[in-house]
Amino acid sequence: MMKEDKTLSIGGLSKLTGCNIETIRYYEKIALLPAPLRTQGGHRLYSNSLQKRLIFICKARGLGFTLEEVRNLLELINGDYSCDEVKHLVLEHLNVVKTKIDELARLQSSLELMASQCAGGDLPDCAAIDSLFEKE
Amino acid sequence: MMKEDKTLSIGGLSKLTGCNIETIRYYEKIALLPAPLRTQGGHRLYSNSLQKRLIFICKARGLGFTLEEVRNLLELINGDYSCDEVKHLVLEHLNVVKTKIDELARLQSSLELMASQCAGGDLPDCAAIDSLFEKE
DNA sequence: TATAAAACCTGTAGTAACTACAGAATCAAG
DNA sequence: CTTGATTCTGTAGTTACTACAGGTTTTATA
Questions:
Q1: What is the pLDDT of residues A16-55, one digit of tens each?
Q2: With an 8 Å Cβ cutoff, are B128 and A86 in contact?
Q3: Is B69 helix (H, G, I), strand (E, B) or coil?
Q4: CATH number (domain holding residue A26)
Q5: Which residues of B touch A108 (CB under 8 A)?
Q6: Cβ–Cβ < 8 Å for A91, B134
Q7: Same domain, yes or no, for B59 and B89?
Q8: Phi, psi of B8 (to 5 degrees)
C-alpha cells in the first residue's frame, strides 16, 4: 500500500502547521511557498510536498532565521546542497543569536542597576531617570 | 556666569546623539520630539532642552524600550511622576528582556544541536535538515 | 435538496521603527 | 559671490506579518 497524498485546504494546513492563513498566502505572494493547485472554485489545495515545505519554513522561522535565510536554505536543499554549506549557515546564525543574547544581558544589567537606583516611593525625583538625560 | 543655551542644527544634534537625521525628523513627525524653532530659512534649531530630550529618547531606545514606552516615560517625567511609577515601568521592561534572553537561549541550544547533527562534508544529506521537514 | 454557516477568495492598508531617495532651497567658507 | 555641504519636504521602501472589506465557494444540517 502506498501512502496517499492527502491534500489540505488552506485552513487545514494552517491547523497542521500553526502558521496562520494570511501568513501562508503571504509566503505564496513572496514566492517562498510555490502556488498550490486549486479547486475549480478557486480554493487552494496543498499537496504533501507543499505541506512539508511549509513545515520547514515555520520551523526555520521559529529558530529565528529571517525569511531570506530560509529562502537560502531551501534553495540549497533543492539544489544539490552539501552538509557543509548548511552547517555554515547554521553556525553563522548561531553567532547572530549569541550576539543578541550578549546584548540583552548587558541591557539586563543596566536595567537592574537603574531599578536599584530608583529608590521607589512617591518622590518625583529619580537618579535613574536623571542619568538618562545626560550625555555619555 | 550662566550657562548659555547652545542651539544645534539637526546635523549637529545628530552628531551629538548618534541618532541619524531622518530619525530625528521622524521623532518630530510622530510627536515624540517637539518641533524646534527654525532659522528664517526654515532650518531646525535645537535648544538645549530638546537636545536633552533626544538624548533621553536615544538612551531609552538603546535600553530596548519601544517608542510607546519611551513616550510613557516622558509623559510621566513631564507630569509629576513618582519614583514608583518609573520603577514599575523599568521592572516590567526588565521582565520582557529576561523572557527574550530565555527564548534566545533555547534557540541557541537547538541550533547547537542542529550543527552537531550536521556531519559536515560534501554529502547532500543531513539529519539536521531532514528533521526540519517533519512535523512535531 | 435547499439554505445557512463556515471557509475561502482578492486586494488593499496598517503595524513598528526606521531608511532612502528626489528635487529644491539654504547655509557656511573661501 | 560662488560653490559645496547641509537641510528642507514629501513619498516610498523595508521586514514579516496582520486585519480588514466585500464577495464567492464549500460543507453541514434540516
A1: 999 999 999 999 999 999 999 999 999 999 999 999 999 9
A2: yes
A3: helix
A4: 1.10.1660.10
A5: 94, 97-98, 101
A6: no
A7: no
A8: -130, 150
